[in-house]
Amino acid sequence: MTILNVLRPVIATIHGFMKRPASARIDPYSLRLFLTTVAEGSIVRGAGKEHIAPSALSRRISDLEHAFGAALLVRSPRGVELTEAGQVVFNRALRIDQDLQMLVREVQSVGGQASGTVRLFANMSAIIGFLPERIKAYSAAYPQVTVSLFELDTQEVLRACLDDRADVGIGVKVDVPAGLESWPFAVDPLIVVMPQGHALSKKRAVKYKDVLAFPLVRVQAGGALDTALHARAAEIDVAMNTAVSVSSFDATCRMVEAGLGIAIIPLSASSAYAGSRRFVRRPLDEPWADRVLCVYALRKIPRLRSVQTLIDWLTGKARQS
After folding, report:
1. How far apart are CA 117 and CA 109, in angstroms?
2. How far is CA 171 from CA 144, 179, 204, 286, 306, in A?
3. From CA 68, how far away is CA 90, in angstroms rounded?
4. Rounded to whole angstroms, how far apart are CA atoms 99 and 4?
5. How far apart are CA 36 and CA 259, in angstroms?
6. Same domain, 155 and 303
7. Closest CA to 219 of 246, 243, 238
């Protein structure tokens, strides 16, 4: 089914409303604002994400409600919730928005030059340790392509790729789900970070069981790294002694610096945030500590030219040719 066939019912619906007053017309931008507001759960937060005044966004949604002849949202001091009619509109608007975005991207890919927007979803360590310089070099080589970067945990990156919300994903190496392709991206081994003078600082490398004897600063509780460390602790039947949990690598290193505990983080993050003399960094002496990052993408033939050029660039193929 071509994109035109998909959009034909949508276009017919919009044309039907064109006979109404301007305030009652349905347009793709208003639908996008409606989707964002629902996703954010608030008109104020939705307006902030879409860079529009809350009053203007509220007026757009009111126009949609007038066009449909039904209330779409229940507004309260706590935020917004979908009405039954709003749920119907939300489901259809989501498909319309995705189809229109795909149409724009397909048109942008026409011609001999890579252009358009590529949606790149990556985990925290990839963004901190590898992507800034690579995206800068890629953008210099392909100035007509815009890379839209989002930070997510590895499992969420894979889900975004499978749902076709991400053109390219980067995360920890896992068993590749059906429908995805993967390529090696980088090796980012795990490092034990501790404050100066810590008892483990005298070792050249540290076993995991020795790390577990001390309070730990955990990063992204429930994330890929945290889940893996919990599983490894369970394998050797040792409980993790959690000092504090934080959501970022820079916060992890600040907690370590303050003496709250020690941490296991990727080398890329330790280089960025724990490279000063206030820290001691030691390799984690375990066979599973050599953490591999991979590039993921939904299996498509052919791919948009802009997406393929980014995959080639990230995996080294473009620089080898």
Report:
1. 9
2. 26, 16, 28, 20, 20
3. 12
4. 10
5. 42
6. yes
7. 246
Q: Are residues 154 and 196 in the same domain?
A: no
Name, in order, each residue with C-beta under 8 angstroms of 240's C-beta and a sequence gap of 6 or more.
Answer: 212, 216, 218, 229, 230, 233
Q: What is the pLDDT along the chain (321 residues), one digit of tens a residue?
A: 555 565 565 555 545 544 544 444 688 888 989 999 999 999 999 998 888 889 989 999 999 999 999 999 999 988 999 999 999 999 999 888 878 877 766 665 565 566 788 999 999 999 999 999 999 999 999 998 999 999 999 999 999 999 889 999 999 999 988 889 999 999 999 999 999 999 999 999 999 999 999 999 999 888 889 999 999 999 999 999 999 999 899 999 999 999 999 999 999 999 999 888 899 999 999 999 999 999 999 988 778 888 999 999 999 876 544
β-sheet with 116-122: strand ranges across: 145-151, 116-122, 168-172, 292-298, 180-187
Are 19 and 84 members of one domain?
yes
244 and 284 fall within a common domain: yes
The reply to whether 8 and 103 lie within a common domain is: yes
Angle of helix 84-108 versus helix 3-17 axis, rounded to 10: 130
Count how many domains the chain has.
3
Do 130 and 167 have their domain in common? Answer: yes
Q: Look up the domain containing 158 and give its range.
A: 116-186+292-320
Place of tokens 């080398």: 267
Select from 82, 108, 134 the last residue of a domain. Answer: 108
Residues 156 and 176 in one domain: yes
CATH number at residue 243: 3.40.190.10
Element (H, E) at 308: helix 305-314
